[in-house]
Fold this protein.
Amino acid sequence: MKRFPDFSAERNWLAALPNVEITLPPVYSELPWLKAVFGVLQQSPLFAHFNWVLGHIYADRPEQFQTPLNRKTIMLYFSNEDFRIPTYISELGMLFTPYWWPSQPAPNLRALPLGCNGEVPEVPPVPWAERDLDLFYSGHAHKYRRGFYQALQDVLLHFRPGGAELSALAVWSSRFRAGLDPNTYAAYLSRSKVALIPRGHSAMTYRLFEAMRAGCLLLCEDLPPAWYLRDCPRVVMPPDWHNLGPVLSQIWQDPALMADMHKQTLDNYQLTCRPEAIAAYILGEISVIMA
């Protein structure tokens, strides 16, 4: 059985920062991403004006923090895949979370990109004209993906892009982190044209950001209209993915559009999802508290 990763080094680095409290366990895949973001945040004069809490929902006990929860406290909040927001949000200066939906009425609630799984390395994207995989998917075969798997099976059997043989890789696993190893997964993404992104236990998945970073064309289910997705091209699929074949056929009819979507996707990741961009967004939002 594959062991969960140990990001103790990243967690310890974050915990050593002044005015930072972290409750995330060292297996959290967000920790390398958080270290990169806070590496930028700490360089701003604004950083020292606030207390920072990296918190999460506990399954078996109430949340408890050493840091006072007040307008000088900025919280980054995780594990709320069901989009639950803590009842104490009104006490905070601001709360940032990847699991955000616009119907949640909280003036100090902000969306953050979930980012990439800390185990998955950043691989230089293969130039579009050199990509040799038409279609790529690797993931857990859980209950939310039954319709997706049926649609994908049909595509693998019958879809022929432009009349040519389909070059595709689909890997099913029995549980989370039981599929391809992270290095192999990242390498395949970097040379794929289309990444299939069915929902996980939440609408937000690491796969979305990993595929965006790789410059793949994104086929995904409905997502909240978060700021970092406004200029990100993607094809929105129904929950059962029943029209996957016709959608792919339509995409392949316009090679110039595919290449343009590839470039826009890469550009959007650089402008909104890189640690430097995320830190700039956080600093811009919390600056209003100082006014």
The chain has a mean pLDDT of 93.
